[in-house]
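User: I'll paste a sequence; please echo it back and then give the predicted structure.

Assistant: Echoing your sequence first, then the prediction.
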Amino acid sequence: MSFLRIVGRNLFVITTRFRLKDCRNDGICKPSVFDFLYRTQVILLFVPLLATSLIAFDGHDQAAIEKQLKKGFAAFAKQDWETVASLCTSDWVIVLHTGASLNLEGIKKFFAEHITEHTLAISNIQVHVSGDATMAWATFSEETSYKFDGNPVSENAVFTAIFVKQGDAWKMKMEQRTLVQPPPPMTEKE
């Protein structure tokens, strides 16, 4: 249910309850000055909340996170670890499709020991920002090719990434990578 619908419903329930209190036993309601003042206060209380949530969902944060993802993955493909570190929290971690989790130093070591000729592209980016705009998550697809210990590898994967807001900047806190393998060829059964 949307935030606006919840606020509207609760505002109606609150104001209706107070109006019913002012009804006499014969069912004729007598509006009071206090009823009007209370409803005005309730409406004025919800205006800042409504404005804050509309600002949080203005699309700026989603665009900033999408831009950061593209910049980060371009740096990752080039093994530009300084740029990658600037876009992540100090305790960033990635959970690989094998279940292993590595921090930035672990990834740097893994790439130095095993990975060469790395290319990648990301697509299908979907970003979601929390209502208070302090955390966000994104899902996206990756197509990558590289040489692992000299052997060529091509993979497709999907990612989920978690972001936190630090000051005015979004920083990636965690990623989870899942391999997506093409389905086996279909054969007719005899």
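The domain at 60-179 is CATH 3.10.450.50 (Nuclear Transport Factor 2; Chain: A,). The mean pLDDT is 77.
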